[in-house]
Amino acid sequence: MAFDPFGDHTEKGYLRNIAGVSDPEMVKRLEHRSVISNIKQALGDLQTGKPLTYQDVLKTHGTLFKDVYPWAGKDRFAVGREEAKLTGDPSKRDLGGMITKGPVAFMPSSHTERGVDYALAMGNDPKTMRASPGEVMGHLAYAHPFLDGNGRTLMAVHGELAARAGIHIDWSKTNKIKYLVALTNEINNPGSNALDSYLKPFVREGSLSLSDRQKVFTGLPGLSKPDERPVLTLVTGPDSASRDAVIRDTKLGSSSEHVTGQQDQLAAIGQGKSLTVASTLGDDQTKDLIDQAKQAGFEVHVKFAGKLGIDDEMRSALKSLSEVLPKADRVQIFEGEGANVREVVDKSDQSLSLKSPKPWAVDVVISDEARKIEVTNDLAMKEKHLDRLQEAARSGNEAQQQLVNNAQDFKETLERLKAKDRGIDGWEESGEQKSKSVSRRPSRREEGYGL
Predict the structure, then answer these.
(1) Which CATH number do you get for residue 298?
(2) Which of 26, 168, 214, 236 is the most exposed place for a label (fewest CB within 10 A)?
């Protein structure tokens, strides 16, 4: 399921790209072409001789992606406000407001400028940049200012900051998967030294020339893109014929080889190769495989083929599914018997799709969203999961639909808390307050830097 913040992916193209192309893979190729064509200008424009600012970051994104997106150079907060103004729908202000990828929840859109400013306050100081290039990258990545193109934009900015500090990172010696694992740990645990520890062996003395930086940038496409992680796909369910049908009908393809032996599965994970495994989920071997994959930076996708009716075997399978869901980045649920299965739920951190599911499938979604509401302290994330709980309940039976009204009361409470916590227009503050906010180490609680 493609990332679709505008809600019109099929009509106006993936992320409303200029070409109107709806296939995300084709858009990625257009992005690559735009970046290669414009990287020299983007890197050159960063050599201002002055401390880098948020406007420099916006300009870099605009230059790199101007051939693909009409919103290139605008952060997701600005895109949301513009969409709300154009449509007359105030709710569009939250377009792209909260973005998660796998285990990472990025900054709310209203805070991205503040997050980048904090990173630049560190990176513009040569002494700090030399000592903590990983921490600077972690703060930049956590801010995640744009709907797409963050990794390449921030890599260009980070390279300029490193050059000003008289160092460079030998990215050719790094391992993409290990880098992404360290970056994820750095984002989730600021100040943990996770990314600095990983990058330390690859930091070199001396600034790279503009042409050398261009070669490095174009030679390592996608290095900092967390959405390019390898995938462990678990096909599961109580009926082996249904599992086989799911594997066949979803056409997993050669990029995700069906691996059967445990040693071969672990070897594939060690090599960073996507793989597909048929499993009942309940055994310790599968749980260990999931843990190994997560530690190696993999995404975990679960495809569950459930029976139409509920029996003891189905209950056991659903129990095992509920235990795995907290570690899954994407879940697809299929219903049917034998070879006749159809997809009824497609659920990830970015999206939820329901196609007339049976009540048991609705219960799976409701239970998972309720768990996520309980475990997060982020008010915006609570609201997001509450919306999805309501969406699932509306597609269920009469008893499940009653949850919609109950959830609405909780939603109104959240709105009051958000209004009190943020203010009507989204955290405006004085220049003196802002300078203080970037002079201390951040505490990433519910709204980003504890502001």
Answers:
(1) 3.40.50
(2) 26
Q: Say if residue 278 is in the same domain as residue 332.
A: yes
- Cα separation of 158 and 360, whole Å? 48
**Are the C-beta atoms of 314 and 238 separated by less than 8 Å?**
yes
Is the same domain home to 197 and 92? yes
Are 422 and 447 in contact by the 8 Å Cβ rule? The answer is: yes
- Are 196 and 313 in contact by the 8 Å Cβ rule? The answer is no
What CATH number is given to the structural domain containing 135? 1.10.3290.10
Q: Which domain holds residue 281?
A: 229-357
Contact 132, 190 (CB under 8 A): no
Mark whether 175 and 248 lie in a shared domain: no
Tokens of 127: 């002494």
Q: Do 192 and 233 share a domain, yes or no? A: no
What are residue 235's DSSP bridge partners? 278, 303
Q: Three-class SS of residue 439?
A: coil
Each residue's pLDDT tens digit, 140-178: 999 999 999 999 999 999 999 999 999 999 998 888 888
Helices 150-164 & 210-219 angle (0-180, nearest 10): 150
Confidence of residue 419 (pLDDT cuts 50, 70, 90): low
Pairing state of beta strands 299-306 and 231-236? parallel
Burial tier of 347 (Cβ tally within 10 Å: 0-12, 13-18, 19+): buried
Task: For 97-165, give the DSSP string.
Answer: SS-EETTEE---GGGHHHHHHHHHHHHTSHHHHHH-HHHHHHHHHHH--SSS-HHHHHHHHHHHHHHHT
| pTM of full prediction above 0.90 | no
What's the pLDDT tens digit per position in 180-223? 889 999 998 887 899 999 999 999 999 999 889 988 887 764 44
At 231, is the secondary structure helix, strand, or coil?
Answer: strand
In a shared domain, residues 222 and 296: no
Q: Tell me if 188 is assigned to some domain.
A: yes
